[in-house]
């Protein structure tokens, strides 16, 4: 073999085998040492955050924030949290629901004594691409649940390369609202295509699984639990609104469905106040905004999470998209028989 050809061959071998190992991202590349507004040395929480590629051709990557469990437990567990929407950032749950931090005031972050990370590893993911701090070219959003599930498998593949200990953990997929669509599809894909993962259960809170059936169940549930008196004025008004929602669903008119909903001070449904232009509770400013007490805190949360994004942006991406995904219409699949628990 010509000496030049031999050298070229050796270089090709190096860049195809050795170089990827040399330049591969490691867990330390995603380690988060501190957060703005979190006093130095005030927390021993170990966390990692960053972007992992799922569609490099179109700048598609998913943003994650991982917290290691604080106390010993009988088993290694990881809860993967997905918010709904579709298009809602899971960082809302990280900050205001089950995550390890809370605001003491607008200038100080403290640890949350009720955080799930006390006894399980927590992994929050903004998905699908284009949600929250995850990125994608604006002409490359996904529109099908099967595509979403396969994309999430790509994320897990990348994640396990950097954090292989996930393979040793019992895994639970958790979420609310439209995650009731996401989670069954992802679970089905894991069972069929990633059997090495120890998927042990699904935790779905108020899942948006079958809207037509669900809307019909709300009023009977309220009556059975003495929340509403049958044939009362409130009962009749709710019944009218339920029928309007059913009609909107059959027409596949999301705007009409939203117009049929009414909000009370940004904290919940109020079917009796006659409001025709509802306010979204997540943009209400003031005490009525509920868990996120004011829009001012919303901006603080975004700024702090953005610092994670910018400091751990290991995948190139020029923009942060916070977009509304198109509504996914396929029904949730029937789960194959397994020992996996669904809550």
UniProtKB/TrEMBL annotation:
First and last residue of the signal peptide: 1-24
Reaction catalysed by this enzyme: Preferential release of a C-terminal arginine or lysine residue
Gene Ontology biological process terms from the UniProt entry: apoptotic process; proteolysis
Enzyme Commission number(s) from the entry: 3.4.16.6
GO cellular component: trans-Golgi network
Pfam families attached to this UniProt entry: Peptidase_S10
Bilayer topology term: Single-pass type I membrane protein
Keyword Lyase: no
Domain of life: Eukaryota
Molecular function in Gene Ontology: serine-type carboxypeptidase activity
Keywords annotated in UniProt: Apoptosis, Golgi apparatus, Membrane, Signal, Transmembrane, Transmembrane helix
Location of this chain's protein in the cell: Golgi apparatus, trans-Golgi network membrane
UniProt entry tagged with the keyword Transmembrane: yes
Family membership noted in the UniProt record: Belongs to the peptidase S10 family.
Protein name (Swiss-Prot/TrEMBL): Pheromone-processing carboxypeptidase KEX1
Organism of derivation: Adineta steineri
Organism taxonomic ancestry: Eukaryota, Metazoa, Spiralia, Gnathifera, Rotifera
């Amino acid at each position: 073999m010509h000496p030049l050809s031999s050298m070229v061959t050796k270089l090709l071998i190096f860049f195809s085998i050795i170089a990827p190992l040399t330049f591969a991202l490691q867990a330390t590349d995603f380690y988060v040492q501190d957060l703005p507004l979190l006093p130095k040395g005030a927390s021993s929480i170990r966390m990692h955050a960053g972007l992992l590629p799922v569609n490099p051709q179109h700048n598609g990557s998913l943003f994650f924030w991982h917290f290691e469990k604080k106390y010993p437990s009988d088993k290694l567990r990881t809860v993967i949290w997905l918010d709904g929407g579709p298009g809602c950032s899971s960082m809302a749950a990280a900050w205001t629901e089950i995550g390890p931090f809370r605001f003491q005031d607008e200038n100080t972050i403290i640890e949350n004594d009720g955080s799930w990370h006390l006894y399980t590893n927590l992994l929050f993911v903004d998905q699908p691409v284009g949600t929250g701090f995850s990125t994608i070219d604006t002409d490359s959003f996904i529109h099908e649940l099967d595509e979403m599930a396969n994309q999430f498998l790509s994320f897990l593949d990348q994640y396990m390369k950097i954090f292989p200990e996930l393979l040793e953990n019992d895994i639970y997929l958790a979420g609310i609202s439209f995650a009731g669509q996401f989670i069954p599809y992802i679970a089905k894909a894991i069972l069929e295509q990633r059997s090495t993962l120890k998927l042990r259960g699904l935790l779905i809170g108020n899942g948006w699984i079958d809207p037509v059936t669900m809307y019909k169940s709300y009023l009977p549930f309220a009556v059975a639990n003495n929340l509403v008196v049958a044939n009362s004025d409130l009962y009749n008004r709710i019944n009218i609104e339920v029928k309007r929602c059913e009609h909107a669903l059959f027409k596949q008119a999301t705007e009409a469905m939203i117009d049929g909903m009414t909000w009370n001070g940004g904290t919940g449904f109020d079917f009796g106040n006659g409001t025709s232009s509802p306010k979204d509770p997540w943009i209400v400013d003031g005490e009525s905004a509920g868990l996120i007490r004011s829009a001012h805190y919303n901006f603080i949360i975004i700024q702090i999470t953005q610092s994670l994004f910018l400091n751990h942006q290991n995948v190139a991406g020029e923009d942060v998209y916070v977009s509304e995904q198109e509504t996914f219409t396929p029904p949730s699949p029937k789960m194959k028989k397994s020992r996996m628990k669904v809550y």
